[in-house]
Amino acid sequence: MSLRYLGDLHTECTHIASGTTIATDAPVDNQGRGEAFSPTDLCALSLAACAVTIMGIYGRNHDCDITGMTVSVEKIMGANPRRIAAVKLVFAMPDAEYTDRQKQALEQAALACPVHQSLHPDIEKKMTFIWAR
User: For the segment 45-94, what is each residue's pLDDT rounded down to a tens digit?
Assistant: First the structure.
């Protein structure tokens, strides 16, 4: 990965192998214009993406499709020092007939994701699952 500072609190982040880029900007409440994801947005979003990826691996290996699942991500900032205080994720599961065992395994997979395990324990990480059935 690489990052290039573009000036005016904007960056361009590049995944070298694929060429995919992500832009960042400082948030409005911290001298930015909020024109792109903030670095702390990406941190919170990384938790969601990682949880979904690990759930997808479980699903692939156990014939349990989660295609179509969506996740809403709420990041709550704290002060003194300015930091992420909480990340709240709401997983809206697809309308499928999951067994109780599959539901429990998918929820445990999300909690076991590497980003969840890497974030500081002082950051509240709340995951809510909404099962269609």
Answer: 999 999 999 999 999 999 999 999 999 999 999 999 999 999 999 999 99
Q: For residues 36 and 21, is the Cβ–Cβ distance under 8 A?
A: no
CA distance 66 to 54: 11
Task: Show the DSSP H helices in the chain as ranges.
Answer: 39-61, 100-111, 114-118
| pTM for the full predicted model | 0.94
Closest by CA to 69, choosing from 52, 54, 57, is 52
**Which residue segments constitute the domains of the chain, with CATH numbers given?**
1-37 (no CATH), 38-130 (3.30.300.20)
